Amino acid sequence: MIKLGSIETISFRLFIVFFLFSNLFTRIIGIDINAITYIFLVSTSLLSIRYVKENTVSKALFFCLLIFFIYHLDPRFSVKSNIYSAKDFVIPLLAFPIGAYIAKYPKKTLSFVNIIYLPFILYGVLQAVFYYTGLFDVLLPWDNMHIYYQIQSGVQNMYQGHLLRFFGTMNAFVEYQVTAVFIGLILLLNKDILNNKSLVIFNTIILVLFLGLSLERSPILMFLITIMIWKIRLFDLKRIVVIGLVILCLISVHPRIDNYLINNSTTQYGWIRFRNIITMSISEDAAVSERKEVQWEYSLEVAEKNIFGIGAPNLSPSARTADKYQISYIGAHNNFLAYYLAFGFVGLLAFFIFVLIVFLRLYQLEVDCGRFGFGTLLSFIGMAIFNAPFTGKCGTVFFLIVGFLVNQKIIRDSLIKYLF
């Protein structure tokens, strides 16, 4: 007789494998197997519910989940549209119990993830190397065809100028790179309890190498923000000296690096985007201007007239692809605006309450976990101003990490009790 624990382990491992590699497998074999990912995500979530601690965080998440689910019973849209929209907005929240399962068995679960992560991040590096050496279409023909089909279907963000936005084993650069960053960091957080500590360090080095090759500012900034809040302690003289030396070295070589990257047709556009953030030249950034003048302005106009939202499928990229003739798609390029338009004021308020409660919970954790959580939360909130990291696969990673963190042992009183 198979024990429940064995079923949990099998379901979890299959979920991780298909979550990280189903898009790649689909491209190689030419058969769409992505639905398997969601089958194992849901099954693992259901098996893991018993590990979720009943507290204000889990209750707030359940309230969000309930509102989001109700909105996906919208009779104005087809069943197909509502299901595909739920894949973007509702399914990611189901990763929360999986995080609780990892918190219960961190060594067993994360040691497996550590092994699987190596080919996952290595593929991104190989993709970048083959692109820079001109061997991309020869050695990765399935990826080359994916780019072709994406461009033919009207997708316009596959490149930064002449630089490919490396999508690794997934279908989009954002979901792959954000997933790579935060799975890599959660492994680093738990390095001391895993079976192979040296593999964690090697994986981290490969991750940093990939981020450098990709030159994509959002995941790089999310990585740096999380690391800075997590690892850099204030008033630590040794760290201040080291950071100061690193900054001085960067400043001393900056003109040469800057001139090379600006004059290189491949890296030019990506570097300009990254430099605009470093130099705080936000007003000169084309992506920010486009969002402000087009996407945000239009989204705010619609939001002002629809306090109860316009229906989640109208904000869902998956529903748009699946049922393009019914969906009046709005690309808000702001996760908070997207939640407001999809679920109205009540849905956005429920999510804000959830985030606030998570913040308060993180304060009660052991310092290392708490600071890691604050860094993760802040980086996702920062990206949510310009994109939608709480949805899709990025959202799955976020809610999984939150589920892991808030189910850790509490070591101090609530911040509210401390303040009042």
Notes on the structure:
The protein is an all-alpha fold and 420 residues long. The chain is built from 19 helices and 2 strands. The chain has a two-stranded antiparallel ribbon. Strand 1 (159-160) and strand 2 (163-164) form a beta hairpin. The termini are far apart. 43% of the residues are buried.
- What average pLDDT do the residues reach? 87
Question: What helical percentage do the residues reach?
Answer: over 70%
Strand order of the largest sheet: 1-2
Share of residues in strands: under 5%
Question: Can you summarize the main beta sheet?
Answer: 2 strands, antiparallel
E-strand count: 2
The end-to-end span amounts to 54 Å
Tally of helical segments: 19
**SSE sequence, one letter per element:** HHHHHHHHEEHHHHHHHHHHH
Overall morphology: globular
- The low-pLDDT segments are none
- Counting helices, strands and paired strands, the structural category is mainly alpha
CA-atom Rg in angstroms: 21 Å
Properties at a glance:
420 residues, mainly alpha, two-stranded antiparallel sheet, 19 helices, 2 strands, 1% strand, globular
